[in-house]
Design a protein that fits this description.
This protein is 50% helix and 12% strand. With 188 residues, the chain is α/β, with parallel strands linked by helices. Helix 1 (25-36) crosses helix 7 (170-186), helix 4 (93-103) packs antiparallel against helix 5 (110-118) and helix 4 crosses helix 6 (145-159).
Amino acid sequence: MEKDLRQNTSHILRVVLYGPESTGKTTLAKALAKHYQTQWVKEFARDYLQNKWEEQQAVCTLEDLPIIVAGQLELENQKLDKANKVMFCDTNVVVTRVWSETHFDGYCHPEILAYSEKWSYDLYLLTGIDIPWVKDDLRDRPDDRQSMFDHFKSTLDKLQKNYVVLDGNQDLRLNRAMASIDPLLKKV
């Protein structure tokens, strides 16, 4: 990676929407940000890779991953000062780590691994696979949802991250997420 990336420090709680593709992360991030009247950080990779697809008909490569990590962190750092007690990240470096490991035969760039262990987030909302998979230009694992979920979960366990699994319809997920976030906000 070209430069040492730094996560800005703050007392704002950082909550990551985390899990396999097409599990409602963006919808949930928007709903939570609206409920808490705060900021949510969109997924840098989605716009970056969609542009790559439209311009070159090319998919993500290992060379794209450091760019994605840096772009995501930049968006996160920009939103942090505007957030109200909590900020919702519609992905983070741990997601990039998992994606790299599952798409490139277990390999992940050493600096991405280091950032995934070093950067701090207060809560991960691991979205379950019990909602329908929706096809788009970037999604590529409709038949591997369980193995992807298992890899996402085992990575959180390995890194000893604080997380909650969210299953069920959107209302159930939203209510469970709020029940997990509210106690954290009382500590801020």
